[in-house]
Amino acid sequence: MAILKGGINGPFSGKVGSIVGYELNGQAIIRSLPKVVKRAPSELTLINRMRMKVVSQFLRHLKAPIAFGYKNVAPKGSRIGTFQSAQSYLFHNAIDYDTENVPYVNPEKVLVFRGDMVPPLLINVERRDNKLYVEWNKAACKGYPAAVVVLAYVIEKSCAWNEGAAISTDGKMLWEHAQFSIKEDQVHIYVGFYDMLNDKFSDSVYGGCV
Asked: Tell me: the pLDDT tens digits for 38-95?
């Protein structure tokens, strides 16, 4: 059963026969139900399912940073949301395969922020005790002041992010956080610039695993 939200000519929510209606980012969407396939999936189908699974697993703790870092790629009102845009990017650009041909997300190829600004040129990323030290080439910033956004990610466990602790022309920053105090954790670092005045991003740059 579906619910009419605006009369007979309005959008509906629910299922009518083989059609499903719902709202996404303020737009009314209808789609058909997937066909039931009884034959065994092909090897390529199985690999694609594994690819989507590893992408979803990689991103599941990054919903808030992705909603921020992809908001200009999938602005409000888009048919495809920020999380789906990130899934698509990783699916097509960030997957490698191990020796047994099993897909996995390569953290070095991931973009957690995306935009047209010139990205930071990192010089040093270092973790000592519960502090993260980040240094970049401020001369390469061409004089524009932008907030430095840093994401620290322990894959499939937790993430922390810092927005605006430094500006691009500083050339360096220090971030103290409990995320860096657990020595056993391998923390992947991503650094980007964000122009708050014009709401613009650079692509993120991978700072390594510290």
From this structure: 677 777 777 778 889 999 999 999 999 999 999 999 887 778 899 999 999 999 999 9
CA atoms of 55 and 88, how far apart (whole Å): 9
User: Which residues touch 181 (CB under 8 Å, ≥6 apart)?
Assistant: 129, 130
Asked whether 13 and 22 are in contact (CB, 8 A), the reply is yes
Question: How far apart, in whole angstroms, are the C-alpha atoms of residue 24 and residue 153?
Answer: 28
Note whether 55 and 66 are within 8 A (CB).
no
- What's the pTM value of the predicted model, to 2 decimals? 0.79
pLDDT digits (tens, 9 = 90+) for 110-133: 999 999 999 999 999 999 888 999
Using CA atoms, how far residue 83 sits from 111, 138, 160, 208, in Å, is: 12, 31, 17, 23
